[in-house]
Amino acid sequence: MGKTADLTTVQKMTIDTLKKEGKTQKVIAKEVGCSQSSVSKHINREAKGRKRCGRKECTSKRDKRALERIVKQNRFKNVEEIHKEWTVAGVSASRSTTHRRMQDMGFSCRIPRLKPLLNKRQRQKRLAWAQDKKDWTAAEWSKVMFSDESKCCISFGNQGPRVWRKTGEAQNPRCLKSSVKFPQSVMVWGAMSSAAVGPLCFLRSRVNAAVYQEVLEHYMLPAADQLYGGDDFIFQHDLAPAHSAKSTSTWFKDHGIPLLDWPANSPDLNPIENLWGIVKRKMRDARPNNAEELKATIKATWALITPEECNRLVDSMPRRIAAAIQAKGAATKY
């Protein structure tokens, strides 16, 4: 972006605000997301009182308000659909003009964030859980082994429809996409502590209680020895049927391993969910051709996870809990 004309109205207002705060042009350019020359040209233009020359805008304020209403009615429409609806409303403008007006309003096309769907009872239980854990220290959380299964796909390019939103609207309910399940390809189980990650287990069949207990026996126990040695630890898993089965609870009692109570449908509270996200982002450039190549890619990427990344994620638990309390049990960003 090298021309002042390329700056959106929101960017120009942000530049003016940061300039008044005494920020340098280099810092402003970094925060706004444009070149330093664009910042300099805008500031100089404002100082000289120059106005942008060129053809007068073909759309009125009323037209712009109509466009904003159309976008907010359904934020998952593409530009072509929005343009058609705007022209049906009586506005004479090209598709590129429609796109520019949307950008001037501060709308950007983004991949929607995911949030689990929670009912009232689940929100209440999450809030009670967060209030119970709000005084836990980083040292206490370091004794927890977090675990979860995840599905990884051979193709990482298809992330679904995008959403039109402004800065600060990432958590707007109308800009969110409900998360259900990842498309099936390869199912993998993993565990982590604040110090490192444990070994991975690729699951070949549907995970029932018997299969899960095999995973615990052959992968979780070695991970515990690797991550904690002979020290005590608390194991965390979600409330999937295989995890909450009576036979699984008996397995933990027989092995003397305490469990961390966990609220239902709460991936946003589990740092290993973020770890899986890191792994998948690192795998975006990889293009495995089959399941075996995908497994090899996952293993190689998992091995690159550093202790610092694990420690940073587990250290975020107090902030996650504070966010859950502030949201009164509702889902938070993850």
UniProtKB/TrEMBL annotation:
<dbReference type="InterPro" id="IPR036388">
    <property type="entry name" value="WH-like_DNA-bd_sf"/>
</dbReference>
<dbReference type="InterPro" id="IPR002492">
    <property type="entry name" value="Transposase_Tc1-like"/>
</dbReference>
<dbReference type="GO" id="GO:0015074">
    <property type="term" value="P:DNA integration"/>
</dbReference>
<dbReference type="GO" id="GO:0003677">
    <property type="term" value="F:DNA binding"/>
</dbReference>
<protein>
    <recommendedName>
        <fullName>Transposase</fullName>
    </recommendedName>
</protein>
<dbReference type="InterPro" id="IPR047655">
    <property type="entry name" value="Transpos_IS630-like"/>
</dbReference>
<feature type="domain" description="Tc1-like transposase DDE">
    <location>
        <begin position="144"/>
        <end position="295"/>
    </location>
</feature>
<dbReference type="GO" id="GO:0006313">
    <property type="term" value="P:DNA transposition"/>
</dbReference>
<dbReference type="InterPro" id="IPR052338">
    <property type="entry name" value="Transposase_5"/>
</dbReference>
<feature type="domain" description="Transposase Tc1-like">
    <location>
        <begin position="64"/>
        <end position="132"/>
    </location>
</feature>
<dbReference type="Pfam" id="PF01498">
    <property type="entry name" value="HTH_Tnp_Tc3_2"/>
</dbReference>
<dbReference type="InterPro" id="IPR036397">
    <property type="entry name" value="RNaseH_sf"/>
</dbReference>
<dbReference type="Pfam" id="PF13358">
    <property type="entry name" value="DDE_3"/>
</dbReference>
<dbReference type="InterPro" id="IPR009057">
    <property type="entry name" value="Homeodomain-like_sf"/>
</dbReference>
<dbReference type="InterPro" id="IPR038717">
    <property type="entry name" value="Tc1-like_DDE_dom"/>
</dbReference>
